[in-house]
Amino acid sequence: xxxxxxxxxxxxxxxxxxxxxxxxxxxxxxxxxxxxxxxxxxxxxxxxxxxxxxxxxxxxxxxxxxxxxxxxxxxxxxxxxxxxxxxxxxxxxxxxxxxxxxxxxxxxxxx
Amino acid sequence: xxxxxxxxxxxxxxxxxxxxxxxxxxxxxxxxxxxxxxxxxxxxxxxxxxxxxxxxxxxxxxxxxxxxxxxxxxxxxxxxxxxxxxxxxxxxxxxxxxxxxxxxxxxxxxxxxx
Lengths: 111, 114
What we know:
The structure holds two protein chains of two kinds.
Chain A: E1 4-7, E2 10-14, E3 19-25, E4 32-38, E5 44-51, E6 56-59, E7 62-67, E8 72-77, E9 86-94, E10 98-101, E11 105-110
Parallel strand pairs in A: 2-11
Antiparallel strand pairs in A: 1-3, 3-8, 4-5, 4-9, 6-7, 7-8, 9-10, 9-11
Chain B: E1 4-7, E2 10-13, E3 18-25, E4 31-37, E5 44-50, E6 53-57, E7 64-70, E8 73-79, E9 87-94, E10 104-105, E11 109-113
Parallel strand pairs in B: 2-11
Antiparallel strand pairs in B: 1-3, 3-8, 4-5, 4-9, 5-6, 7-8, 9-10, 9-11
């Protein structure tokens, strides 16, 4: 059974810090991997998508990397801001359209 | 974000009630999904519809009944639910077969079963 694990479960940092969120998956035969953001009581917003053939993707202050062989991905957030406070979810797509999600990392950036 | 809409946003129901959740996508996608999000648990895929046909039922109890009348609309009919069914129910859509597949999520329906 495919499993997606995210650590840490929660993270609190002062504004301006660079931080790394981790995601690991048990089955490396992925189609793609995505990072989502979820604000309290809201739906999910896609941040970055990495195809299985890619190593990383960047969008603004966000950089996501993918190492399929080790079953890992990281989301790097540079110069964190209070507006970055949210839950970050990692999702892995296996064959066709079955997504498996991690439990998320709840990030709090303190002013 | 208005690409995927869900109604109602909040719902309180008793265990003997029958209610329905509605989802509509305005993105021209060919696949729609229902997910359940409970506190401190990963998002759980419930149902998948591709081109209006159900292709996935992830061992969901029969008290949850999906309906997809067309590629833009998805319903989740609820009856005789249990308190443990209280959760955030999220709808999503995607365009299958385009390579860079991503899902677009609605805001969710917060369900409380008393």
